[in-house]
Amino acid sequence: MEKQDKKILIVDDEPDIIDFLSYNLLKEGYQIFSANDALSGIKIAEQERPDMIILDIMMPGMDGVEMCHQLRQNPLFDETLITFLTAKEEDYSQITAFDVGGDDYILKPLKPKVFLSRIQALFRRNKRLSKTVKAAYQDEEEIHISDLIISKGKRSVLKGRQVIELTRKEFELLLLLVSKPGKVFTRDEIYENIWGDDVIVGSRTIDVHIRKLREKLGKKYIKTNKGIGYKFEF
């Protein structure tokens, strides 16, 4: 897909930020749409089906985290890249952003060349992301392993009669681990396959996602190799 075929939606309550981002992205040949609030952004996203959404966190009314959460509940946006744009540097803000389905977290203030480089890197990463997972289960819609049934289409897990809903990143992480049961995936391998080596995430991000997977699935499946990484056992 060429740049002129890629649609980017910018959602920010600051007109100056929208103008700045739009100007630089239009120069690169992207199609640009914008909204000043989350509700308008959701409507435009449903109409235009953008390839990427650049989303401010702090907005009046519905904030960017809640908007991202709502979008990720809609299968139409499973493949849409969502990157947060914010001045908030705290680890917990980044973890929350990734937990609701964000793909990247870009801090203000912005330098045009750095910003465009991050956007281009996200599109490149999206082409190669989770190669191990896709190769392992390319033609399977359901994965039966231990007492779990993993549905790729529904992005959910059936454990006995209990349906377990996972966030996008939790689901990708689980797929990676079950692609090679017993193999210890290092933290670097997990970063590269789930977040991509172009994205810088907080040091606790993997640990938080592993903890949430254990809370939802039970502790027996995912084991820790201290100082190395994690593996799936059954």
CATH architecture of the largest domain: 3-Layer(aba) Sandwich
Spatial strand sequence of the major β-sheet: 2-1-3-4-5
Q: How many structural domains does the protein architecture include?
A: 2
Mean pLDDT over the residues: 85
CATH superfamily of the largest domain: Response regulator
Structural class determined from secondary elements: alpha/beta
Could you name the ranges where pLDDT drops below 50 across 5 or more consecutive residues? none
Q: What summary fits the major beta sheet?
A: 5 strands, parallel
Span from first to last CA? 41 Å
Topology record:
Layout: E1 7-11, H1 15-27, E2 31-35, H2 38-48, E3 52-56, H3 64-72, E4 81-86, H4 91-99, E5 104-107, H5 112-128, H6 131-136, E6 142-145, E7 148-151, E8 156-159, E9 162-165, H7 168-179, E10 185-186, H8 187-195, H9 205-217, E11 222-225, E12 229-232
Parallel strand pairs: 1-2, 1-3, 3-4, 4-5
Antiparallel strand pairs: 6-7, 7-8, 8-9, 10-12, 11-12
Helix pairs in contact: 7-8, 7-9
What does this entry look like structurally?
It is built from nine helices and twelve strands. The mean pLDDT is 85. A hairpin with a 2-residue loop joins strand 8 and strand 9. 32% of the residues are buried. With 234 residues, the protein is α/β, with parallel strands linked by helices. It folds into two domains: 126 residues, Rossmann fold, CATH 3.40.50; 101 residues, Arc Repressor Mutant, subunit A, CATH 1.10.10.10. It has a five-stranded parallel beta sheet with strand order 2-1-3-4-5, sandwiched between helices. The protein starts with 6 loop residues before the first strand and ends with a strand. Helix 7 crosses helix 8.
